[in-house]
Amino acid sequence: MGLKEDNVGTLEEAAAKRKARLQELKSRKKKNEEDSKENSDAGDADEALPPPKILFRNYQPESEILSEGVLDPTKPADVDTLVEEQVADANKAAKSLQQVELSSLAPKKITFDLKRAIEPRLEKLERATDRAIAELIRERLKEEAAQDKHDLLAAVNAGAAAAAHTDDED
User: CA–CA separation, 94 vs 101, rounded Å?
Assistant: First the structure.
């Protein structure tokens, strides 16, 4: 039974610790609630500010209470000087744009865009030209071969005639 009594003592200690923690949490909670109430009271103080003063620029109130908020009439600003300044700034900007060198804006090769646009057409024309040249060469070779046959035939006939001529003389 001595063991049970030891367990009971440790259980009572644990319960006391839990109780102390709960009380501490409750006190913290109360403190936070009081702080939040004080902050809300401070917020209420902000809401209790006097309303803004009404100012009248173009309206002339009939009541004397409101006539305190009437502003003196203002004179229009000098627009001419403002416009002159803006025109001067625009002229300066235009001059700086005119001073830009065209050579820095232009491509390095003048015909770059033309070459790019015409290149596919030129490839087709080059293939057709190559075919035509090859056909002309074939025709010329056929003609030369035919002439060579005629020349060979003429040479053989001339040789035969010369041989026959020499036989006749002998």
Answer: 14
Count Cβ atoms within 10 A of the Cβ of residue 76 and give its class: 0-12 exposed, 13-18 middle, 19 or more buried: exposed
Tokens standing for residue 141? 């070779």
* Calpha distance 111→117 (Å, rounded): 10
Q: What is the pTM of this model?
A: 0.28
What's the residue count for the chain? 170
Residue 86: both structure tokens together: 């803006």
> ∠ CA 18-23-24 to the nearest 5 degrees?
95
pLDDT, tens only, 57-116: 888 888 888 888 888 888 877 888 888 999 999 888 877 766 666 666 666 677 777 888
